[in-house]
Write a structure and sequence with these properties.
The protein has about 100 residues and is an alpha+beta fold. The protein contains two helices and three strands, in the order αβββα. It has a three-stranded antiparallel β-sheet with strand order 2-1-3, with no helix packed on it.
Length: about 100
């Protein structure tokens, strides 16, 4: 999703509407494998895989529901490595700046 994180949707909104409110799917979203997670009244975790490729569904979201839109597996190994290494790159930059300041 273009704007991931906690969002508020109006009552009786559909799952696809919630995705739209979050900025809509990105170009590499795997809309055929959207995970919908809800905590039941009994405290059990209910998971459901939903196909939102046509951006239409009849699931009404409730407060506390979690929606996960995964990325397609078609990413190249370089893109995957970049996602993994990006946090380390930021740390490396911070350490470089600290080293420069200490000189």
């Amino acid at each position: 999703m273009n704007d991931p994180g906690e969002i508020e949707v109006s009552p009786n909104s559909s799952l696809s509407s919630a995705v739209a409110v979050a900025g809509g799917p990105t170009g590499d979203a795997a809309l055929s494998r959207v995970e919908f997670i809800r905590l039941s009244e009994e405290g059990a975790i209910e998971r459901q895989e939903v196909d939102l490729r046509n951006l239409s569904d009849d699931i009404q979201v409730q407060e506390g529901d979690v929606v996960i839109v995964p990325e397609r597996n078609s990413s190249s190994i370089l893109e995957w490595a970049g996602r993994i290494l990006t946090p380390f790159n930021s740390l490396f930059t911070i350490f470089q700046r600290i080293d420069q300041l200490s000189r």
